[in-house]
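Re-run with default settings, no changes from the original entry. Doing this only to confirm the output is reproducible before filing.
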Amino acid sequence: MLRVPLKEGVTRLITPLARRLLRAGISPNAMTIAGALGSWISALYFFPQGELFVGTLVVTLFLLSDLFDGTMARLDGSQGSRFGALLDSTLDRISDALIIFALIIWVESGGFKAGATFFDASEMTVLLLFSLLTGFLISYIRARAEALGIRCDVGIAERPERLIVLLVGTGFYGLGAISALPLSLIMLLTINIVTILQRVIVVYRAS
């Protein structure tokens, strides 16, 4: 999993730029909104047209705003803002949904080369839908558990890991590795299910 060492290294790298953005009058919430809007527009523009590699690069660039807004919030002392946390979480869920929705549009419009893999278009759509559903369940279980006073941030696949698996498969498909996307979706669905089970077990044991 992507955890403390990598995150701390990236944070140190982007901190000077985060300070400049704050001095320019850009707030952490504004960065959150800009990154979310950029990822939404990029996904809905590039993926349905079959521009999977370029789309992956642009979407990933905007998703990196998550690193900036968190660092900016820490620097300006607003890290504990409840509204900021709610805004970030809400926009993240929309971003995840729209990325998969854009890929479904592409698959259903005939963009997926079904003959080159073991899956046809309808099966790819099912994989995408179940990946979306299980991803939302991961977030829901944590939110519901924490509302009950149970810490539930365990699991092999939090949002960064899930996005990496999905976007790596999407990007490599765009470069011509046709089996990359189906394999990434199978992997994504698998780690999602494992994470759901891990969180359910934590809540069960705590209650």
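The CA atoms of residues 98 and 126 lie 16 Å apart. Helices lie at 4-23, 28-46, 52-63, 65-75, 82-108, 121-147, 159-174, 180-206.
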